[in-house]
Design goal:
CATH architecture: 3-Layer(aba) Sandwich
CATH topology: Rossmann fold
Mean pLDDT: 94
Shape: globular
CATH superfamily: HUPs
Structural class: alpha/beta
Radius of gyration: 17 Å
Order of helices and strands: EHEHHEHEHHEHEEEHH
CATH class: Alpha Beta
Strand content: 15-25%
Bound molecules: adenosine-5'-triphosphate, magnesium ion
Number of domains: 1
Oligomer: single chain
Largest sheet: 6 strands, parallel
Distance between the termini: 42 Å
């Protein structure tokens, strides 16, 4: 079984996240994917961070209105049930322990997040336990596919391990002992949660940026004002 793990602060979830996961699901024929909101993101300032339960609810609403995701995407509260900072290594170990032994895990993340993974707790262990699917993030590096591949390669060799090399046969970076790293060229959507929080704060519309139900929830609860 091929399982995708897509974690983030999701403060709030937006159409960039949704489109990305939809395309990755199709492109990699994943059997199942989990959207995993971080309870206490170790790397983010806590100002403007809305309650994890509200962020979780917005993800539920978004998935429920997205036919392409409804069947194979589950919203996971695993990080909300843990105390302390939400470390991805703990989440990956959790899924390893509950999924069938022959499952293959894919950690899905934007290029911006991937290029700082050497600041994450136990990141070297992560590369032993899970494959990675890196997706482009407008504003990080350039939009050019080759520039992105170069930046991933340089980063892998410099910060993770010299042993990573691109395999044209497998269309990913492979390593003799570690898990592969794929780059998946989803159509870039230039949306960020930061932009949404700013727009809401300025009283501007976020209609085309989040699903209608999420927009409604933000309004009703008076979030990000
Ligand atoms: P913020 O602006 O608060 O950092 P964000 O939009 O970056 O929010 P996160 O919750 O930080 O959202 O991101 C979760 C994951 O989704 C990260 O791996 C990030 O790179 C990825 N991601 C976020 N927005 C996009 C997008 N528009 N396209 C592709 N990947 C994205
Ligand atoms: Mg971010």
């Amino acid at each position: 079984m091929h399982v995708g793990l897509f974690g983030g602060t999701f403060n709030p979830i937006h159409n960039g996240h949704l489109k990305a996961i939809e395309e990755v699901l199709k492109g990699f024929s994943l059997d199942k994917s989990y959207l995993i909101p971080s309870a206490l993101p170790p790397h983010k300032e806590q100002r403007n961070l809305v309650d994890a339960k509200d962020r979780m609810e917005m993800i539920r609403l978004a998935v429920a209105t997205c036919p392409a995701l409804m069947e194979s995407v589950t919203v996971s509260d695993v990080e909300l049930r843990r105390k302390g900072p939400s470390y991805t290594i703990d989440t990956v170990c959790h899924f390893k322990s509950i999924l069938p032994k022959d499952s293959r895990l894919y950690l899905i993340l934007g290029l911006d997040a991937f290029l700082e993974i050497d600041t994450w707790k136990s990141y070297t262990d992560l590369f032993m336990l899970t494959s990675f699917i890196v997706i482009p993030r407008p504003g990080t590096v350039s939009a050019d596919r080759f520039a992105i591949l170069r930046s991933i390669e340089n980063y892998l060799k410099k910060s993770i391990s010299h042993g990573y090399n691109y395999s044209f046969a497998q269309s990913c970076y492979i390593h003799p002992d570690k898990q592969p790293v794929f780059f998946f060229d989803v159509s870039p959507i230039d949306i960020s949660s930061t932009k949404i929080r700013k727009l809401v704060n300025q009283g501007m519309s976020i209609k085309s940026l989040v699903p209608g139900k999420v927009e409604e929830f933000i309004k009703t609860k008076g979030l990000y004002l």
